[in-house]
Amino acid sequence: xxxxxxxxxxxxxxxxxxxxxxxxNSLFEDNAEFGLGMLLGxxxxxxTLATQVKAALDNAPDVPLDAGLSACLSDWxxxxxxxxxxxxxxxxxxxxxxxxxxxxxxxxDSIYAHRDYLAKHSHWIxxxxxxxxxxxx
Length: 137
Description:
The protein is mainly α. It has helices at residues 31-58, 67-78, 86-98, 106-113. It has a domain at 31-117. It is 45% helix and 0% strand. It is elongated, with a radius of gyration of 19 Å.
């Protein structure tokens, strides 16, 4: 296999917040499709999350949001695809959501349940000659 791919000596780790790389290594030559599928899956979850954020903001008259939470959710929505500052925005939203009473607002409950997807993920897909289809297949 390739460097860093075999357990247990995988050289990747997380920081004190549990943040770090997610590693997958396919034995087969399908890592391009696998990587694209992972990207599309995360994008779909984040799109659903954006729908929940919009619903929480739109339903604010019926289920009032704290002004700080409303501002943070609006900021997150406006900058959803921006990598710069994504962790800071996500941490602010999570902190404010954690102080909410569970069950009071189904939209904020759903956002909190998917809090790992508030920060924009970076996807790196590496491949070799096999998935470039240049080895005579």
